[in-house]
Design brief:
The protein is an all-alpha fold. It folds into 2 domains: about 70 residues; about 180 residues, no CATH class. Helix 6 packs antiparallel against helix 7 and helix 8 crosses helix 9. The longest helix has 30 residues. The chain is globular.
Amino acid sequence: MLSEHLSETLRHDPESPVALQRRLAACERILELIQQRLQQNPHDKHQLFLLELHQQRHARLRALWQDQRLKGQDHLQQLDSVVNEYLERWTPESLSDSAAAETDPEAAAAAHQLDHERQTWEAMVARVRERLVKKPGDPMLMRLLGEHQARLLSVQEQLRQLSGEPAEEQTVFEAYAARAADREAEAPKRPVSPEIEALERELGLLEALAARTRQRLEAKPELKQLQGLIAQHEARIAEIQLALARLRQQQHLH
């Protein structure tokens, strides 16, 4: 009866957590078989192609499963944890923990798989942003950007969890939520397009993240790599501000 129930679930909802777990398990078994064949012939081009194909499929399935698992949790609370753990990766302590984790074969394998997923989602986010340059404010592209960024953050969270870094008491979203509440109280009530609303959410997140990163750099000036991270956030903030200005002008004209 249980197997019949699972089969029925898989047929009617292929993206349910149960169905995704089964698809992940099947994909992992296929990957194991491919890796066994590659041990016998490491230069088999067909098996290498299949390996890459199924790794990408595994990354997509795992991201979908993680996305389903996170549903029902408070969105800001979840992102807050991700952002703080994201910043922790730049500390010397977390780098030491990462190096120690690499000595554990299972942890190293998990980190390698997650890093592959991270690169996949980063590439997908970059492609959507390139398309948004040609079609600014496109609703479908804005939705895709939000989904890809959420999945990228999910993978990044799992990577940071391998380092075992504790969460900090002060959160990046405390300032973000306060600023958002102030803006909402001060701004006159007016209809806002979904494109503008999505960009404003991303802008608020990036502004909070950039501010927190600057605080970290001030506290630990030896972390020179944070300067590059700040520059990356500021460049994206400038892009969003230009896009918002253009969309608001179009909305005003209409």
